Amino acid sequence: MTEEFGEQGPGGSDSTPGQDPVTPASDATSGDGPLSTGPEVPGERGFPQESALPPQAGDDSGTGAAADVSRETQAGSQPFTVRTAEDIAVAAPDLTHDHGTPLARAAEHIVLARHGARMRPALPRPDRTRVFVVANQKGGVGKTTSTVNVAAALAQLGQRVLVVDLDPQGNASTALGVEHHRGVASTYDALVDGVPLAEIASVSPEAGTLTVVPATIDLAGAEIELVSVVARESRLHKAIHGHPQVGTAAELGEDKIDYVFIDCPPSLGLLTLNALVAGSEMMIPIQAEYYALEGLGQLLETVEMVRAHLNPALEVSTIMVTMYDARTRLAAGVAEEVREHFGDQVLKTTIPRSVRVSEAPSYGQTVMTYDPGSPGALSYLEAAREIATKGASA
Ligand SMILES: Nc1ncnc2c1ncn2[C@@H]1O[C@H](COP(=O)(O)OP(=O)(O)OP(=O)(O)O)[C@@H](O)[C@H]1O
Ligand SMILES: [Mg+2]
């Protein structure tokens, strides 16, 4: 039984880590009974290595005159049977009626992606520019990934978006395909020398309505250089609110930038402080892993201090659970804990852990253009919609 299933293995997507949420369902529907992906399936390394080649070689050599017969036809002569939709309906009526299975959702997603956003009603543009600070001093939780993908998704949905890369690592600039080597005008120039953002921003190849203020490594020195500057914590506020396209629809009409996203570095230093003073909303990505909530208390205390002394308008409007692995109980547990803590602030959409999401930046792209039909891209699209709709009703 295990061997027979092994033949299905190489073709099944279970051995492809990038296709996460879809896999279990596709296997479950093609096999006999409860084809548990649990204890029978060895770890990622063992599975493809043990079962990939030998059974296939046997298949080919043994077919003889029937060499041109399709694999499906051959499967009939195998000890396992291929079940029809009817068989499945009898054996597991729930499966055929549950549109919420990962397989059904993935199929729906692909259809949606193919037809694009046009199938859905257009997103309303906000009355005034919404400035989001994407922050969490914990490193590697998905700040940059969420910034660039939500920004690209909103731009695809017809919004005008500006991304300010406030991290000297310049990861957001890379993912959005804009130059950020030394010498390029960057956030540093805006903060330290007061150069207008509109002069520095360039259009991202991701979308015509998405502009980016890149970060260069110079920004690493800005925290120290700013110490002696007057009103050092409100330099970014001045830069963003001095942008001629930031403001209300009444003043600016069509030209208004709808969303500004500030991608913060993993620290609570002067750069992040500048972002907290400049923004009106915060988006906190939380990785669905152990320790996820550690450090959040300190972040929220900082937000409280900023609200009390520097920016009373700041609110934590959006918490996003990222790198969610539906196969682990840990992820579900963390997501639940986050929801218990933060309630409505948490987006209903969680972002799955997906190889496509992490591959995209190496092509200078977001996953929204790199693989628009992938679960990661569709989740970011859904998250972007949620953000836009929540803000409209607030
Ligand atoms: N949904 C996802 N699925 C798979 N990998 C992801 C996902 N989201 C982020 N990653 C990967 O996790 C790593 C950290 O993500 P990211 O750079 O967005 O975090 P960050 O919070 O901005 O990090 P830093 O604190 O260094 O700025 C990256 O390698 C990224 O490709
Ligand atoms: Mg980052």
Ordered list of secondary-structure elements with their pairings:
Layout: H1 2-11, H2 23-30, H3 46-51, H4 54-63, H5 71-77, H6 85-91, H7 93-97, H8 102-115, E1 130-134, H9 143-156, E2 161-165, H10 171-175, H11 187-193, H12 197-200, E3 202-203, E4 210-213, H13 219-225, H14 235-241, H15 249-252, E5 259-263, H16 270-278, E6 281-287, H17 296-309, E7 315-322, H18 329-342, H19 355-359, H20 367-370, H21 375-393
Parallel strand pairs: 1-5, 1-6, 2-4, 2-5, 6-7
Antiparallel strand pairs: 3-4
Helix pairs in contact: 9-21, 14-16
Bound molecules: adenosine-5'-triphosphate and magnesium ion.
The site of magnesium ion has 5 residues, from helix 9.
Task: Summarize, please.
By secondary structure, the chain is α/β, with parallel strands linked by helices.
Structure report:
The chain has 394 residues and is an alpha/beta fold. It folds into 2 domains: 2-98, no CATH class; 125-393, Rossmann fold, CATH 3.40.50. The protein is 46% helix and 9% strand. It has 21 helices and 7 strands. The protein has a 7-stranded mixed sheet with strand order 3-4-2-5-1-6-7, sandwiched between helices. Strand 6 (281-287), helix 17 and strand 7 (315-322) form a beta-alpha-beta unit. Helix 9 crosses helix 21. The longest helix is centred in the last third of the chain and has 19 residues, at 375-393. The N and C termini lie far apart (56 Å). The protein binds adenosine-5'-triphosphate (ATP) and magnesium ion.
